[in-house]
Amino acid sequence: MTIEADSSLKRLLDEVEARPPAPSDPLIDGLSPSLVLEPESDEGCARALALCQTEGMAVVPLGGGTRLEVGNPPSRLDVYLSTRALFGIVDHVEGDLTVTVRAGTPLEALNRELAHASQFVPLDPPLPSRATVGGILALGEPGFRRRPGARPRDLLLGFEAILADGTKVKAGGRVVKNVAGYELSKLLVGSAGSLAVITRACLRLRALPEDVVTLALPFSRISRAADALHRIARQAVLPEAAALLNPELSKELGWEDWTLLLRFEGFREETSEGAEEARRQAGGRGAEAVPADVWNELRDFPARPLGEAELLLRGQAAPARTIALAESWQDGGPLVAYPDSGLLYSQTRDLETLANRRETAALLGANAVLDRAPSSLKSEADVFGEIPEAFELMRRIKEKLDPAGILSPGRFVGRL
Amino acid sequence: MLESALRDELLRVLDPSACLFEPHQVLVYECDGSTAFKASPDAVVLPRSTEEVAAVVRLCDRKGVPFLARGAGTGLSGGATPGAGGIVIALTRMNRLLEIDLENRVALCQTGLVNLEISRAVAKDGLYFAPDPSSQSSCTLGGNVAENSGGPHCFKYGATTAHILGLTVVMPSGEVVHMGGPRDGVGYDLVGLFVGSEGTFGIATEALIRLMPLPETAKTLLAPFRSMVAACEAVSRIVASGIVPAALEMLDRPTIDVVEAGVIAAGYPRDAEAVLLVELDGAACGMDRLLSEIRRICLERGALAVEVARDEAERARLWLGRKAAFGAMGRMSTDLYVQDGVVPRSRLPETLERVAQIAAKHRIRVANVFHAGDGNIHPCIPYDGRDEDEKGRVLAASREIMELCVAMGGSISGEHGIGTEKSSYMSLLFSEEDLSWMRAVRDVWNRKGLLNPGKVLPTGSRCGETRALPSVAASAGAWI
Question: Are residues A77 and A193 in the same domain?
Answer without folding.
Answer: yes
